[in-house]
Amino acid sequence: MAEGRPTCARRLSPGTEVIPLLVGAGAAAGALLAHGVYAPTSPVFGPVIGRGRDPRRVYLTFDDGPNPGVTERILDTLAEHGVPAAFFVVGGYAERFPALVRRIADGSHEIGNHTWSHVKLHRSGPARVRAELERTDAVLRDLLGRPVRLFRAPHGYRTPLVTRAAARLGYSVVGWSLGVWDTARPGAEEIRRRVRSRLRGGGILLLHDGDGYAMPGAREQTADALPGIIRDARAAGLIFAPLGELLA
Ligand SMILES: [Zn+2]
Questions:
Q1: How far apart are CA 176 and CA 42, in angstroms?
Q2: How far apart are CA 31 and CA 131, in angstroms?
Q3: In angstroms, what is the span from residue 212 Cα to ligand 1's centroid?
Q4: Of 247, 231, 239, which is closest to residue 170 (Cα–Cα)?
Q5: 109, 114, 208, 209: which is the annotated catalytic residue?
């Protein structure tokens, strides 16, 4: 019965092997969790739509509106060019500007939930996470007269609480494959150039028609850049397709 003891004792003795192993495992787990929280398409905390598979099709998304003065301009450009988009709206703004939400829907664009107050959900407790999603869901259902299907977390930050709250509402969680920091307002031509140089087939492009932390949001440069972005992508042989086709 004693044969196993020496081996066991050797393994468990405070030495130079076990502790680094534990530290290494801890670091790996930490890196995995960080990836799950911060990477917008990480599957660590559940499935995320991060890109399409068709190499000719791309998907346009706008976050943080509705934002009077900018969202209308973007809708006009999309209508003029016959391009579909998905708008991930902030619930508090949707309640303030219901006509703008209806106008997005009337343009046959998709509308997704982007929380009530654009809070960073990885720092929020379970009750807050649920309230942020559910309050927005109720306002959007009321405005649209139909269920909302899409959710995108502010900054893409997610945890298992977020995954659970989204699943309860029947949402598909959406990330993005290309962000160009249009929120930093580098100039419309620079926004256009960044998209032109990096947008590839299957890409989900993240742009912003509003500002999650300020109303009105200064997103005129994004609106200014949009016609050129559409022209460039089409010149490269890309087709703008509705995001909803990725919900399999
Ligand atoms: Zn946002």
A1: 10
A2: 29
A3: 6
A4: 247
A5: 208
Please check whether residue 245 is in contact with residue 110, taking contact to mean a CB–CB distance below 8 angstroms: no
pLDDT at 189: 98
Q: Is 81 a catalytic residue?
A: no
Instruction: Using alpha carbons, select from 89, 78, 85 the residue that is nearest to residue 59.
Output: 85
Query: What is the pLDDT at residue 208?
Result: 98
Note the pLDDT of residue 20.
Answer: 62
The pLDDT tens digits for 85-97 are: 999 999 999 999 9
Residues 6+ apart with CB under 8 A from 87: 61, 62, 63, 65, 66, 71, 104, 109, 110, 111, 112, 209
Q: Is 109 a catalytic residue?
A: no
Distance 142 CA to ligand 1 centre (A): 22
Confidence of residue 72 (pLDDT cuts 50, 70, 90): very high
Q: Amino acid letter at 135?
A: R
Is cis: bond before 66, omega within 30 of 0? yes
pTM strictly above 0.90: no
Worst-scoring range by mean pLDDT, 1-15, 115-129, 141-155, 186-200?
1-15
Amino acid at 94: A
Contact 155, 187 (CB under 8 A): no
Residue 46: its pLDDT value, please?
Answer: 79
